[in-house]
Amino acid sequence: MAKNKIDNTSLALDKDFTIDQLLPKELVDHYMIRKPIGVRVHKQDCRITHVLPESILIGKAFLGDCIVGIDDKVITSGDELHTKLKEKTENIHLSLKRNMFSWCFHIRTTVEKIQIDRDVERITPNPVNHYFVLIRLRPTPEMQIIDLGLFVKYNNRDRLEVDYVTPNSLASIHLKAGDVIREVNSQQICSKSMLRYHIANSIASSGVFTLLVESPIRDTVRDHIDLADDVVQIADKAAEEFKKLGKGYVPQPPKRANPKRNIKLKEEKTEYPIVSDIDPSKLRPCKNAS
């Protein structure tokens, strides 16, 4: 896999930082599975060309992945694979070299910077994370459609922002809605056409491209929920009240049910206060109020 050299003066990278030595050349996953494996492979390089619906590798092996090893033996051809699978063993240790994968490296946590003019830059108090993302995708004859699952839009600052990622897609591994794509292959990106061109050109030539992503630091609990401030405050107060009620509680293991035991209902009631954002002492009397 060809490496994309990163310019040391690239945005968000320190001058003494080089990432080339960290770039993964390949990704190999290992599975302990039961025979038969239920896939069809190419005779020359053991590239997976079809996964049967009843295969045990459904959701684990994909088109373009190569079988590179079984147990302690390196597999380089279809004949070696066929010979190894004929051995009288029930389970095998399968090694798969991925044709598609995503790799991410956290560069640093800093504050957001806005380019006002060519020589004027404004620093905001908003914290952001800078990530370096490498995505490998080599087209094969078996892949009829190449879909990264990445959809972008222009935000209110005319920067490219991730609008949506298809679930379980290659882009969804390390990208999410709200991330800002600053660079592709060390080239600053300012339009959708530039992003599309650099990604398509890299996939066709080397099968790998890199992204420099600026991700705002969000509240992980409400990452994808847009709530009003007063609703969030009420929810926080209610959560604190429930935490107080749960202090000292030790969960007990369930008891075995006795079929001869009669079920009785207790008339005791447990009341929980409804938390509001209104202080009762600040309420004013109202005429004709029920």
In the CATH hierarchy, what is the class of the domain at 101-216?
A: Mainly Beta
Provide the β-strand percentage band.
Answer: 25-35%
What is the N-to-C succession of helices and strands?
A: EEEEEHEEEEEEEHEH
> Structural class, from helix and strand content?
alpha+beta
- CATH 2nd-level architecture of the domain at 101-216: Roll
According to DSSP, the number of beta strands is 13
Q: How many helical stretches?
A: 3
Biggest sheet, in brief? 5 strands, antiparallel
Q: Compute the average pLDDT.
A: 80
Fourth-tier CATH superfamily name of the domain at 101-216: PDZ domain
Strand order of the largest sheet: 7-8-13-11-12
Shape: flat
CATH topology of the domain at 101-216: the name is Pdz3 Domain
Oligomeric grouping of the chains: single chain
Radius of gyration, taken over Cα atoms and rounded to an integer in Å: 28 Å
